Give the backbone structure.
Amino acid sequence: MAEGLGERDFRQIPLATAIDRVSDIELLIRIYSKRNKAEEALNLLNELKATSGLINTLPLKAAALSAEGIFAYSTKDYTAARHCLEDAVDLYDKVILPFEASRSRLVLEEVLMNLYQHSHAESALYTAIQVFGKMGATKDLATARYILKNLYSEKMKPGAGDYIYEFTARELEILGLIAKGK
């Protein structure tokens, strides 16, 4: 009963408000996942999936899959994380969102390392490096190059991927707005 009421309340949220919250929700899922706050992350993930179902666009589906992959990674469900992230990358590529696809590839690389699929992880990194280089995304390019350089070293043993939770300048701006209640 309560779940049905929650869904009803969600459907009453104006579409524009739901869309505006997507970036905030994605960021918060990453933050909660990093801090091992699984319940909070899962609640937001469910909200993101509901928004994705309501709005039904490929970029939003990709965002929900990427967030689900990050959540699965944080709970050490590496197989589920791999499937979600691969699907997110495919959707981002399909709708020509190369930056988002490559950011998801960085997370996918860490998942693949935890699954001991080093050659697949290396391939994901090479693709991300090409995209970040073409786009001039210097911070992400440097991160991807660092990971590739150290892929087989002790520095990059499975579980060393805190870079998954790094934020872009725009994401930091959004976090500032959230903190101010805007």
